[in-house]
Amino acid sequence: MSRVLTNDGSMNMHPGPMYYNGVYHLFFQYNPFGPLFSNQIYWAHSVSHDLINWTPLDLAIAPTEPFDINSCWSGSATILPGNKPVILYTGINSDNQQVQNLAIPKNLSDPYLREWVKYTGNPVVKLPDGIQPDDFRDPTTAWLTDDGKWRIIVGSQKDKTGIAFLYQSEDFINWTKYDSPLLKVEGTGIWECPDFFPVWVDSMNGVDTSVLGPKVRHVLKVGLFDYARDYYMIGNYSPAKENYVPQSEFTLGTLRYDYGKYYASKSFFDPVKNRRILMAWVNESDSEADDIAKGWSGLHSFPRSLWLDQNQKQLIQWPIEEIELLHENEVSFEDKKLEAGSTQEIEGITASQADVKISFKLTNLEEAEELDHSVVDPQLICSAKDASTKGKFGPFGLLALASSDLTEQTAIFFRIYKSSERYVVLMCSDQSRSSTRNGLDKTTYGAFVDIDPKQEEISLRTLVDHSIVESFGGGGKTCITSRVYPTFAIGDDAHLFAFNNGTESVVISKLSAWSVKKARINIEETISCTS
Ligand code: DQQ
């Protein structure tokens, strides 16, 4: 399926995904001169009609003016009334300050919006007094409220307090900073690539960015630079009082879109299928020398739909249905027992590029181990007990990108614990044996899944795509993305297994798996203006 949107050069952050007149646009940060991040960052631009096949276009924004001469960083697209897209983006100006600039399409009748022109009066938002020059960036998509004013958030910090500065404008040119930020939290460090959008309280459909009222809650996502983690809060936004009250206080245990390598995400509303779509930057886990050798670095995650869980406590994320365009060779079976210490190869599909859904049934759960409450950081539990460490119920799950002798394997698995009167479901993604190569980041990731194994089966969906593995536990309640670089388990020598290293047997109640065909990515095509 390969999501490399850059054949050469370093890709990171994709500032502004958007839909416009039948075309999906993906803008992303790009260094055209080499595979590593640099101080000459451009906005690259790809387009798609189905969010699967992407055609690269010419670079959309280059660092050419005093207000962005030292790089064009993240920002967002907004569709103004009259169906007019605009971009707000962070420029590093000639004084090395981060300022916010406006750009608009040169020619709205070009279906691919290939050329963008910068407002000559840039920057439209200058660095606020008292904020450091490199602490003010990544303007969000704007939203319009009843008073006819647009609003955006700009990420910032002051003395390690993370800040979402709120700005208002009537004409999208003149912006004034609201006295108090939409939200700030001490001790988090800078908030990068913020995102602020409504979600329906009672529907899986997406909501356009400016919808307000009692039928929506608002999600505020902030990226913590110090941890490269995207956290999100669900809360109530009142434009009249210009404040946002999260349902629960922000801590480092706050919910994250993804507990693996998944950062600087942005969402947009897709009016074609009435959904909110999320995409993120998935960075490398290899070294800079490796990136130079391979000539590129950085991937995009597979697009996800996201919506508010019916319990209104968290978001649900799920691969967009268009992935089915790439499915072939489905294999499936039901009610297969996985004895303790056993594996079951999933054959008949290309294990290096696959989509697999599996659900597990457990019995005599009362035998489950007690959770050791002295360690409650799920990632630490997963790191301490890898896929080979026997438990009662678990580890059971999938071995992706596995060599036939299992010396290489990326294990995505669950462990079930008893904790006071309830059960706890732990999900891990164990990269410790993902490659025989050294010098890689093989950090194991982990998180709890908010499901009750007494009431429902334990489900896992995993997308495998050569060096990227995206997993969705509990129907999309908990997601973990990893980057791995197997040396043997590649191409036709990659295998996929279901496994159970627990002492209790489990039953695979259902498994469906598909080969996933290669998408058309980065293939220059002669684009006729009428297409
Ligand atoms: N990296 C970008 C910034 C953003 C950060 C610069 C996110 O716009 O804040 O490449 O990793």
Question: Please, could you describe this protein's structure?
Answer:
This protein is an all-beta fold and 531 residues long. The chain folds into two domains: 9-319, Glycosyl hydrolase domain, family 43 (Tachylectin-2, Chain A); 325-516, Exo-inulinase, domain 1 (Jelly Rolls). It is built from two helices and 38 strands. The chain has helices spanning 288-294, 378-384, and strands at 9-12, 17-20, 23-31, 42-48, 55-56, 72-80, 84-92, 98-105, 116-118, 136-137, 143-144, 150-158, 161-169, 176-177, 183-185, 191-200, 216-224, 229-238, 243-246, 263-270, 275-282, 296-297, 299-300, 304-308, 315-319, 327-338, 342-345, 353-361, 369-370, 396-402, 410-419, 422-430, 445-449, 458-465, 468-473, 478-483, 495-500, 506-516. Strands 27, 29, 30, 31, 32, 33 and 37 form a seven-stranded mixed beta sheet that branches. Strands 1, 2, 3, 4, 5 and 22 form a six-stranded mixed beta sheet that branches. Strands 10, 11, 12, 13, 14 and 15 form a six-stranded antiparallel beta sheet that branches. The longest helix has 7 residues, at 288-294. The protein is globular. The mean pLDDT is 95. The structure holds 2,5-dideoxy-2,5-imino-D-mannitol.
SSE blueprint:
Layout: E1 9-12, E2 17-20, E3 23-31, E4 42-48, E5 55-56, E6 72-80, E7 84-92, E8 98-105, E9 116-118, E10 136-137, E11 143-144, E12 150-158, E13 161-169, E14 176-177, E15 183-185, E16 191-200, E17 216-224, E18 229-238, E19 243-246, E20 263-270, E21 275-282, H1 288-294, E22 296-297, E23 299-300, E24 304-308, E25 315-319, E26 327-338, E27 342-345, E28 353-361, E29 369-370, H2 378-384, E30 396-402, E31 410-419, E32 422-430, E33 445-449, E34 458-465, E35 468-473, E36 478-483, E37 495-500, E38 506-516
Parallel strand pairs: 1-22, 29-31
Antiparallel strand pairs: 1-3, 2-3, 3-4, 4-5, 6-7, 7-8, 8-9, 10-12, 11-12, 12-13, 13-14, 13-15, 16-17, 17-18, 18-19, 20-21, 21-23, 21-24, 24-25, 26-38, 27-37, 28-34, 28-38, 30-31, 30-37, 31-32, 32-33, 34-35, 35-36
Bound molecules: 2,5-dideoxy-2,5-imino-D-mannitol.
